[in-house]
Amino acid sequence: MRIPCPHCGLRIHDEFTYYGDATVRRPDATAPNAEAAFYDYVYTRDNPFGLHRELWFHQGGCHEWLVVERDTRNHEITGARPARDVFSAGDAK
Amino acid sequence: MASRYSIFSLLKESFRGHRGWAPAWRDPEPRASYDFIVVGGGGHGLATAYYLAKNHGARNVAVLEKGYIGGGNVGRNTTIIRSNYLMPGNIPFYEHSLKLWEGLEQDINYNAMISQRGVLNLFHNDSQRDACVRRGNSMHLHGVDAELLDREQVRKLLPLADFDNARFPIMGGLMQRRGGTVRHDAVAWGFARAADSLGVDIIQNCEVTGIRQDASGVTGVETTRGFIGSRRVGLACAGNTSRVASLAGLRLPIESHVLQAFVSEGLKPIVPCVITFGAGHFYVSQSDKGGLVFGGSIDMYNSYAQRGNLPTVEEVCEEGVALFPFMSRVRMLRSWGGIMDMSMDGSPIIDRTPVDGLYLNAGWCYGGFKATPASGWCFAHLLATDESHTVARAYRLDRFATGRLIDEHGGGAQPNHH
Question: Which end of chain A has fewer CB within 10 Å, C or N?
Answer without folding.
Answer: C
